[in-house]
Design goal:
Keywords: Membrane, Transmembrane, Transmembrane helix. This is DUF4181 domain-containing protein. The model has no long low-confidence stretch (mean pLDDT 94). Helix 1 runs antiparallel to helix 7. The protein has one domain. The protein is globular, with a radius of gyration of 16 Å. The protein is 79% helix and 0% strand. With 128 residues, it is an all-alpha fold. The termini are close together.
């Protein structure tokens, strides 16, 4: 199960880095100027906070494996992480008009969301 948490840490780290690329890849310097300034600020703030959460989660997975696997709060964090990725997967399909699954990037990230569900659910159902 520790191997899964290492994979989970890498998964979170990669998503944090992926979100760091949003300003350039999504052309936010020009694209966000097209929306209300309040919405522009909120978009960027939310992205910065999710980057922080991904990096924090990565640290938890790398350095607090035993606690995640054996304590009540650790298991609660695993449940919350699995639910995060489950919800994100559902949202991908709710917003499929804006994020079409046929797009290779959207298909790839959707698969990564599903992998996130598995990474954090499997340790919860370990039947040793």
């Amino acid at each position: 199960m520790k191997t899964l948490l290492i994979i989970g840490g890498i998964h979170s780290l990669l998503f944090g880095l992926f979100h760091c690329m949003f300003w350039n890849k999504l052309h936010w310097k020009t694209e966000l100027k097209k929306i209300d300034p309040n919405n522009e600020a909120v978009m960027q703030i939310l992205n910065l906070r999710i980057i922080y959460i991904f990096f924090l989660h990565s640290i938890l997975c790398f350095f607090f494996m035993d606690e995640l696997l054996t304590t009540g709060i650790g298991r609660f964090i695993l449940i919350g992480s699995a639910l995060f990725w489950f919800g994100r997967t559902i949202e991908q399909f709710v917003y499929q008009k804006q994020l079409p699954f046929k797009d290779p990037v959207n298909m790839g990230v959707t698969i990564m969301f599903i992998i996130g569900i598995a990474i954090y659910t499997i340790p919860l159902i370990d039947l040793r």
